[in-house]
Specification:
Blueprint: H1 3-56, H2 72-75, H3 80-88, E1 93-95, E2 102-104, H4 120-135, H5 143-166, H6 171-188, H7 196-207, H8 218-237, H9 242-257, H10 259-262
Antiparallel strand pairs: 1-2
Helix pairs in contact: 1-5, 5-6, 8-9
Pfam family, one: Pex16
Keywords: Peroxisome, Peroxisome biogenesis
Biased composition (Polar residues): 105-121
Length: 264
Amino acid sequence: QSVPQQKLLTWLSVLECVEVFAEMGTARVWGEMGRWTIIVLIQLAKAILRLLLLLWYKAGIQTSPPIVPLNREQQQPLHPQDMEDSSTGKDQTYIGRRSSRVVRSLQNTPSLQSRHWGSPQQREESQNRRAEEMNQPPTPLGLQETVAESIYITRPLLHLLSLGLWGQRSWKPWLLSAVLDISSLSLLSDLKDLNRREQAELRRRTILLLYYLLRSPFYDRYSEGRILFLLRLLADYVPGVGYVTRPLMDYLPAWQKIYFYNWG
């Protein structure tokens, strides 16, 4: 990845990290008008950055989060003792004579902070596999797939526009957004030879279609009563589950009011 492309990904990641906080903070300070203004500005900025990545830098199917979080356990450097033993040719593992099981020798056991519970070979294979996944180039997109990804990127802006035209209680924004999401996934379904990150992203987008059950006005008219009834039933008759379901019932109304939780 080039430096400008990496900067775009960084800014996109920052926007996704602060969008909920920005919406809630602006609503508290400037009210509903300020809240919807910041929502539009953030979604517009995200769409511009994503379109630049798609059309200019040919970034392919864009994943969420844009930058893969650092796995500190896998990125942890080798213990100095391991490096010293490796350089001096000492064996780091012991193979059992009867079981043939590979275990780390006691003299090469690292400190507790840097210890992992697999063999050195497993750790090395995991690191190599992760590095290979990170370095895989994006799958080239044809015209159909580029249109599909563009639909997915611009869907939030079209949804906001439809909310402004028809209001939050109308079914038209909900239906428009659903049609755009399903159309994008349908057009991308013909794409073959995707790398693992892209396959995981398409699975994530498919699972997120379940959010339409929790989005207004469908949630207000159909889902709310059934979901609350199910949660209350679990809390009353399944021991221990109430510690999770009761706070969830209290949280759902607040969750519903935050646009970026629902539609972002």
